[in-house]
Amino acid sequence: MINNPWKNLHLNKKYQFVASCDDLDTLEIYNQTRSNPNEFLHLEIPTSNVIGNPYECKVMILLMNPGFSDEDIIDIKNKDFMDAFYKRNDFFFLDNKFSDTTSYKWWKQKLLTPLVKEFDQIDDNQIRQKLTQYICNVEYFPYHSKTFSNDLYALRLPSQEYAFESVRIAIKRKIPIIIAKGKIENWAYQVKEVFNYNHLYKLSSQRNSTISKNNLLERVNPNIDHWTKVQNFNSIINFL
């Protein structure tokens, strides 16, 4: 079992949230080379690199890196929210007590609301609780920025190994993996097992991160990269 570098997340002397490994020098050099302020990495916000339990989750969702807004600064002043960041025991972003945070609002729009519409016979609160328990989100790059720069592909941080190992764990467990952002090739470059994985899904639109039946494709034949519209959404979200 690989150590989770985010379990010991802490503020350093520069008031930056860093992992318990040697990420910082690379991150600061990268930021010094940014001419586009939207590409700047906001180290004052705790990363959401892996949220959920890769050993127990029933669906894994892959994104590129956490975004950034001014509201994120407000969210980290919430002590309970920060305690959840330190513990990272479940997919706490959809915990109802964090409904005022940007993370909750984003995931409600992209995941919770579509599922509530799809499974309207199930109580909304029950769906939210199940998602909190059984979803795991993995970000390709752990630190926040307004936009994802392709230059980030050239970086390899020590903390990223935990994210990539989490994907390998999900593959070994044969659970559904949904690529909600990024290309398969990018993920497979770091986790080669992704290329031939049978329980892989991606979104029809890279611009729309909504995880709904109408926006989801399933891999039919990995050998010829054949995808088709999801036929049985219940088989993916079978824990509801």
At a glance:
This protein is of the alpha/beta class. It has one domain.
Task: Characterise this structure.
The chain contains seven helices and nine strands, in the order E-E-H-E-E-H-H-H-H-E-H-E-H-E-E-E. The protein has 240 residues and is of the alpha/beta class. It has one domain (10-235). The chain has a seven-stranded mixed β-sheet. Strands 1-2 form a two-stranded antiparallel ribbon. The relative contact order is 0.17.
Average predicted local confidence, pLDDT:
90
- Low-confidence parts, pLDDT < 50 over ≥5 residues? none
Report how far the terminal alpha carbons are from each other: 28 Å
Supply Rg. 17 Å
Number of helical segments? 7
Tell me roughly what share of residues is in helical segments.
25-40%
Query: How many extended strands?
Result: 9
- Anisotropy-based shape: globular
Number of domains: 1
Biggest sheet: strands, sense, closure?
A: 7 strands, mixed
For the biggest β-sheet, the strand order reads 3-5-4-6-7-8-9
SS-based structural class?
alpha/beta
Strand content: 5-15%
Helix-strand sequence: EEHEEHHHHEHEHEEE
Quickly list its features:
alpha/beta; 7-stranded mixed beta sheet; globular; two-stranded antiparallel ribbon; 240 residues
Question: What is the strand and helix layout of this fold?
Answer:
Layout (H helix, E strand, L loop, with lengths): L9 E2 L5 E2 L5 H9 L17 E2 L7 E5 L6 H6 L3 H9 L14 H17 L5 H11 E5 L20 H14 L3 E3 L4 H7 L9 E4 L12 E6 L4 E4 L11
Parallel strand pairs: 4-5, 4-6, 6-7
Antiparallel strand pairs: 1-2, 3-5, 7-8, 8-9
